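Researcher: Watch the backbone:
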Amino acid sequence: MRRAARIAAAGALAGAMAFGAGAMRDAAAQDASAKRDATRVVTDEAGRRVEVPREIHRMVTLAPNLTETIYALGLEARLAGDTDYCDTPPAAKLKPHVGAPVNPSLEGIVALHPDLVLATAINRWETVHALERLKIPVFTTDPQTARGMLESIEHIADAAGASEQGREVVARLQGRLDALHAKLEERPLAHVLFVVWEEPLISIGQNTFIADALRWAGAESVILSEKSWPQIGMEEVVRLQPDYIVLASNHSESGAKTQLEDLRARPAWKQLAAVRMGHVAVVSEEVTRPSPELVGVIEDLAKQLHPEAFGQKSEKRKLKLENGESGELAAIVRGCDGCGR
């Protein structure tokens, strides 16, 4: 009887252990299923597979263009923090900051408890990998053109669980670019010098983001260089004689006038017919950011370079020079009439 009791007890224990193991397996399977239901995998623009929560409630952006994109998508309520340089729209300056894009504070990011961090080309991979080790998902973007910027908006919207908003924003922006292209497609390109820095004089290469924006505005750089930011001599610029000088600035209209007067006061720049004729276009610094605001900057620049396409009178036709339209400059003005510049 004692032996039968021991056998029965052993059988009961084995059954209990088997039941417990099965229950543990079921619980593990349920946990795994719950995790799968709570997360999803997205592929960022670097080709990385990133597991993100299905519901994104808190985000941190590590560059100004990313912050602008979040606002354009109407997701600013989910923006837990951004960088010290995020200033557009003005409300972005009121968000908690995590430092500069190149070297943000990891502690500051963690303290904001983000579900998702957005990064881009100006951020360092060391930052991305450090956040990954802290189990914080990071979605990276790397737009190289205006169309690439539109694609990034959709990708960011998808990662944030706002695909419909992304499609709507992109459709509006693409419509504006298409309308601009229709106005400019029959017009010759304006040949411009885009000034990144004045001393030393630095311009843009052919394969930069800014060069692509210029093409949308009906312009091309007179500088042919494979380097992104070539340094050039003033003698070469004088030889090339660009139609317009393009400057990026946050100055107001009065500030733009001051910049023109400043260029006219410099002997080297006075050798440029564009400066003497007042063909200096000043656009927002947003031209350097692959963000939704870029489309507005492109439109503004196109109106300055091709006023006739927008029903405006050409500046060259309104120009009254202090010393009269004589000599070389008058010939330039008359010569440009035929090409629309």
The chain is about 45% helix and 10% strand.
